[in-house]
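A brief tutorial aside. Many learners find it easier to grasp structure tokens once they have seen a single protein encoded end to end. The record that follows does exactly this for Transmembrane sensor, putative. Read the sequence first, then the structure, and try to relate runs of similar tokens to stretches of the chain.
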Amino acid sequence: MARSNKDAIYEATNWFVELTSGEATDADQKQWQRWLNASPENRHAWEQVEAITNCFMGLDSKTSITVLNRPIDTKDIKSQERRQVIKTLSLMLAAGSAGWYGYKQKPWYLLMSDYSTAVGEIKRLTLEDGSLLVLNTDTKVAIDFNDRARTIRLLQGEIYIETAQEQDRNYRPFSVVTDHGTVTALGTKFSTRLKSKHSSVSVYQDAVEVRPCDDLDNNVVVNAGELVTFNTAFSQQKKLIDRASMAWINGFIIADKMSLADFVDHLSRYHSGIIRCDPAVADLTISGAFPVNDINAALTSTSEVLSIRIERYTRYFVMIKPA
């Protein structure tokens, strides 16, 4: 089966991260060269990534990617007070979803987070059990690891997880809890996103089990390559995931003939302000791999390949219009 251009771009962005991390070995370089020479699609994808990253004004890709991938040891920064807040939360959860709903309406709800990211920031953490946790832009989570379970409460935003296999202790289930239900890992790599009316989970390896909080008997197993959206009452039909959707983990947006309107929606998640797209150019399409840590540069590079102009009224309000 023919590989899509998006798959090749996704692999190219992974190689870009690896080769600019400062940790690539001679063997990595040789493996990258074999990948590059394996197909015209790979070479074209690499040229696209290279062109985009080189055109970003003043962007030091190696430095930014190295900082992005630096792990943080949670053991050194978790406080006794924070653990107490999580214990209190666990007790409130025991009262049922209605109790939790009432609690989370309070203005100090989001202040209970253990870790958070600002708009435009992506953060990688190594949890105390060795699991990898990546927080996307504008995300907040609370961590509750005890002798019986490993639980992450997703308070806002989106996370990616690679669960660690615990070898020296009794198995503790690993779950992500959102306003709409619980996602339990079955030894896996997956991402979870929280929106106002629903949550979604994408599985990249192995499987997860999803249970809506108001119908715990209505569980669904989501396997690798699948995505499911759920609210408090039910889960929607499973869909196939787009591998490029996880490119944000490495600090990229991958577009493959994406409409300009959709592209702007993706960029807006990483911009502290408003980006508007004139309907007259909304259906124009864009392809490429775009780092998310310089949105203004991403817009400028887009204007060089599409017939559009970027009007910046303030640093917070941007309008995209026909050229």
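Self-check: The two ends are 39 Å apart (CA to CA). If you spotted this yourself, you are ready for the next section.
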